[in-house]
């Protein structure tokens, strides 16, 4: 094995030491009896390590030809502490010592190693400072709506637009955006599933980008992506309620003019944003495609169905989707076993190994009968007595529910808001309350002194789909225990 002598000189100057002088001093430092391999880079700067002889020396180190590296001065190797840190990691791995003649720096001695550790501390500081600057720049770009890189989502191409007199990265819609709109419009319909949409797109020979074919995962990723949404205050509130507290833009800026993007790490296994705690929502510099109301309807449907994979579309029971395990809270699935016998299975136990309940003694038909009797009692009360309150048509009911929900969410945002934002939120709440009172006044004027009555619904005559819809209207969930059930009614 040999000793490597490395010398570098960017330019011949009166006050700089020559290549020859560097080599001579290095030989004198380590003794003339050693075998030397000399590496010389003349005319190269020390700002980086992109130098031919330096690269050759590092290759020889990796192949085991070198046992020691010696230089006249540390800056002959590099003027970057970070580059030197990377080099030392390689020397250490290959068990190669290092000596600097001028600084009396020799890693074969305790003092030399101590000096090296000090340098490594500063190298770490430089790396962290650079990382912090990169992060700050990243989030500053996000605040201005710049597309932050990566493959363009389905329906978009990457491009650039003029913003503030500068050309900045953005996304530009392509012909595939019509398929995106079709996906959102289809999913909000009753009975439509991710799988049925994937099948529809495949049958229509719509390209799935880099994926070989459409599946539930591909459709779900599109539906979940806020880059398609016209991001307004409702979408701000949706993400706020999901646990996001970091928004790159003020709530007033969420006016539906632009779409949004989520900034943060995804789960490596599922590639999903499973935990929003440390994520940021930022408006983009390009418009959204899907109206906020439709996008949010899809999110709420996805949220309801997140534990209902492989549920058989409810073909075994009209209570599918409402049944939850009393032990772990995960979905209880109705499965068909030997000779067509129906039995209950906890997805938390068999799929996620997160529950100790292996089997349920309750029979699904008995549960259905119990739930049906309870709903029929409620319907009978409405028919026989009714409630002394105004009657709203379906559109009015839906509008009131939306308004009440918006008010509730806005009130929840006030506690974490600034004085300016609180003023804005209060104005929004006043507007919503005015709309709410207007609808109530209309209904009271039309239905004064009348009682609310049902239209003669006979529950037992409904088909399974209708029964499921009726049950969803009244029931939050049905908790199934080992030998009992509990119906949790909607407030």
Overall description:
This protein is α/β, with parallel strands linked by helices and 491 residues long. Helices cover 43% and strands 16% of the residues. It has 15 helices and 15 strands. The strands form 5 sheets. It has a 5-stranded mixed β-sheet, with helices on both faces. The protein has a 3-stranded mixed β-sheet with strand order 8-10-9, with no helix packed on it. Strands 11-14-15 form a 3-stranded mixed β-sheet. Helix 4 packs across helix 5 and helix 7 packs across helix 8. The protein starts with a strand and ends with a strand. 23% of the residues are buried. About 3% of the residues have low confidence.
What can be said about this structure in brief?
This protein has 491 residues and is of the alpha/beta class.
Name its key features.
single chain, alpha/beta, 5-stranded mixed sheet, 15 helices, elongated
Q: Compute the CA-based radius of gyration.
A: 34 Å
The dominant shape is: elongated
- Which class do the helix and strand fractions yield? alpha/beta
Low-confidence stretches: 307-312, 448-455
Estimate percent helicity: 40-55%
| CA distance, first residue to last residue | 81 Å
Q: Biggest sheet, strands in spatial order?
A: 2-1-3-4-5
The tally of strands reads: 15
Query: Overall pLDDT, averaged?
Result: 80
């Amino acid at each position: 094995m040999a000793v490597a002598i490395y010398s570098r000189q960017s330019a011949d100057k009166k006050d700089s030491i020559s290549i020859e002088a560097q080599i001579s001093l290095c030989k004198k430092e380590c003794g003339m009896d050693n075998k030397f391999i000399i590496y010389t880079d003349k005319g190269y700067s020390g700002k980086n390590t992109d130098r031919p002889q330096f690269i050759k020396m590092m290759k020889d180190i990796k192949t085991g030809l070198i046992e020691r590296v010696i230089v006249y001065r540390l800056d002959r190797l590099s003027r970057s502490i970070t580059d030197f840190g990377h080099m030392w990691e390689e020397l250490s791995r290959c068990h190669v010592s290092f000596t600097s003649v001028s600084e009396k720096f020799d890693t074969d001695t305790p003092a030399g190693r101590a000096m090296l550790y000090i340098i490594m501390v500063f190298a770490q500081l430089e790396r962290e400072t650079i990382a912090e600057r990169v992060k700050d720049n990243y989030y500053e770009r996000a605040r201005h709506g710049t597309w932050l890189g990566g493959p363009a989502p389905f329906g978009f191409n990457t491009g650039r637009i003029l913003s503030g007199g500068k050309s900045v990265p953005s996304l530009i819609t392509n012909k595939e955006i019509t398929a995106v709109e079709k996906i959102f419009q289809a999913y909000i319909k009753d009975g439509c599933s991710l799988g049925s949409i994937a099948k529809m797109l495949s049958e229509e020979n719509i390209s799935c980008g880099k994926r070989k074919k459409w599946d539930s995962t591909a459709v779900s990723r599109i539906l979940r992506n806020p880059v398609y949404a016209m991001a307004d205050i409702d979408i701000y509130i949706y993400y706020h309620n999901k646990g996001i507290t970091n928004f790159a833009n003020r709530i007033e800026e969420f006016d539906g003019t632009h779409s949004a993007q989520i900034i943060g790490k995804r789960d490596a296994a599922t590639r999903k944003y499973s935990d929003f705690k440390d994520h940021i929502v930022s408006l983009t510099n390009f418009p959204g495609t899907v109206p906020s109301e439709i996008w949010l309807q899809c999110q709420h449907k996805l949220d309801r169905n997140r534990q209902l994979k492989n549920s058989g579309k409810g073909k075994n029971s009209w209570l599918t989707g409402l049944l939850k395990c009393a032990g772990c809270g995960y979905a209880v699935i109705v499965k068909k076993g030997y000779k067509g016998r129906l039995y209950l299975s906890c997805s938390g136990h068999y799929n996620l190994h997160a529950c100790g309940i292996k089997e349920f003694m309750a029979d699904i038909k008995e549960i259905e009968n119990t739930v049906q009797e309870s709903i029929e009692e409620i319907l009978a009360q409405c028919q026989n007595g009714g409630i002394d309150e105004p009657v709203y048509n379906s559109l009015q009911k839906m509008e009131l529910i939306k308004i009440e929900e918006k008010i509730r969410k806005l009130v929840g945002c006030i506690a974490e808001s600034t004085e300016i934002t609180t003023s804005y939120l209060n104005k929004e709440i006043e507007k919503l309350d005015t709309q709410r009172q207007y609808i109530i006044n209309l209904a009271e004027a039309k239905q004064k002194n009348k009682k609310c009555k049902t239209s003669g619904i006979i529950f037992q005559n409904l088909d399974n789909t209708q029964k499921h819809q009726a049950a969803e209207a009244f029931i939050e969930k049905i908790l199934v225990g080992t030998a009992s059930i509990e119906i949790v009614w909607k407030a």
